[in-house]
Structures are given as C-alpha cells and as structure tokens.
Amino acid sequence: MSTLETTRVEKKRPPPVKVFSAQLKTAAVSGDGWVVRLDRGRSLPVTLVWMQGTVLDVQLEQNTVLLMDETGTFAVQGVNNIPRGKPCLSQGKYVMVMGVIQAVSPEPVIRAVKMADLSEKTAIHRQMWKLEVEELQHVLCSLAAGMDAAPTVICATEEKPAQ
Predict the structure, then answer these.
(1) Homologous superfamily assigned to 17-144
(2) pLDDT bucket at 11, cuts 50 / 70 / 90
(3) The whole model's pTM is what?
(4) Which residues lie closer than 8 Å to 38 by C-beta, 6 or more apart?
(5) Per-residue pLDDT reduced to its tens digit, 128-158
(6) CB under 8 Å, gap of 24 or more: what pairs does 53-58 form?
(7) Where in the chain are the domains?
C-alpha cells in the first residue's frame, strides 16, 4: 500500500470515542472495529478510543505501559513510538492516550497513537473524566438516533427476544 493510500485510510477513521476500561472488557468485534456496550442496552461502534488513567507500570523494553482508570486497568502498546510521549511514561502520572483497540480480554489493550501528560492538573482532569465520557457517549447516541440516513456512528438498542 502506498503512503498516499495509507494516509487516505487513516483519514477515513472516525474520531476517537471516550471510553472506560470496563466498557472495553465487554466490547465485541464488529466489522473493522468493536462495539462497546453502554448503559440501558445501547451500544456504540468504535475503532479509535480516547482513555485516561494513572500509570501503574512502565515496561519500555516491551514498549508497553499499564494504566488504571476509575473502572479498571488497561495496557497501552507502542509507547516508544509516540512523539514527545516519553515524559508521560513515569509511574503515578495521570495521562491521556488515544489509540486503536488491539484486544479487550482478559484486559483491554490499545496501540497508542497519541499520549499526553495531564498530571499538572490531575484532580480536575480526574473529576471531569467520568462526566466527559458519559456526555460524549450520550451525544453520539442521541445524534445517531435522530439521523434518517445511515450514520457513521450508530447507537443500537439491544432487543430482547420475544417470550
């Protein structure tokens, strides 16, 4: 694949969706991405995620860090390849990471595309994170529900079988 083709493929990827580690643990494979189960039987397709958490362990020789958010732990791979990502790679730092889902079980694994250190204002970032995730997911589902044409992001309601 040429560089131009690769760039076009990358540009078609939808923006990252903010998610919690626990939501990824219950995600299912769907086409080119994953479907994350939300509350009230709703689901949201995702390929690129935005997550935040505290660095628990750094394994530079394995190109991996282990993070923990409010709902559980998740691994981030490819950290040595992130421009200006090294300052984030210290135990105890609060960081954001955007990446592509690689696996969801037994523990979510994402391949990092971007990382940033949020430690300077950890308290406010940590307090706002839960609200940001819930709000974005609600907005995406509300927008999808109001569209007539096939939207890029679809929130589905799981139907219960008839009894």
Answers:
(1) Nucleic acid-binding proteins (2.40.50.140)
(2) low
(3) 0.77
(4) 23, 44, 137, 141, 155
(5) 898 899 888 888 888 766 653 344 444 555 4
(6) 53/21, 53/94, 53/95, 53/97, 54/92, 54/93, 54/94, 54/95, 55/88, 55/89, 55/90, 55/91, 55/92, 55/93, 55/94, 55/95, 56/91, 57/91, 58/89, 58/90, 58/91
(7) 17-144
